[in-house]
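no rush on this but wanted to send it before i forget. what follows is a protein written twice so to speak, once as letters and once as structure tokens for the fold. mainly i need to know what kind of three dimensional shape the backbone takes. thanks a lot i owe you, the record is right below.
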Amino acid sequence: MAIALSAPFRRLFALAALLALAVSLAGCGVNNVPTLEEQAKARWSEVQNQYQRRADLIPNLVETVKGFARQEEKVLTEVVEARAKATQVTIDASKLSDPEAVKQFQQAQAQLSGALGRLLAVSENYPDLKSNQNFLALQSQLEGTENRIAVARRDYIQAVQAYNTELRTIPGKWIAGFLYPEAKPMATFETAPENQGAPKVSF
């Protein structure tokens, strides 16, 4: 004999069933794909934040060097031009699945790293510049920023690895194919080893 449930009880029963289904789905990793994707995007934002911090330091550094070493115009111009290019080549989180866009971003930043390295090497020829407090402070901030960039890149690479692995392994591959068909693997950094470290700073 079937028991007839009133409308409020039926709604309550349906709500409880939906809640139980949601909890069971959450427990089986159905949210892993978007969670890992958002983590990777957040890590990318930190990479961009640190590159922007470096770009913001450069004008003051260039002006300080210019005051002591005007004859190094070529090196100063290279830094200014590399900074301009690096700040123009941007990539937002929606394009992280495009390896070519990420590569162009990396190349622009690597050119700026090289130009900065040459600028800091110039200081070796100018004792007064090497002992200038403003230069020393900027040099220290720049070195710290380069280290932060390296950490931010490492964190991004790890986040992308976790996300891409989720998309390629079971059950993540099935879940992504069914619930998140728009999810695509993200590109990671592939810069040359010489571009991974901070510029050499000698005192």
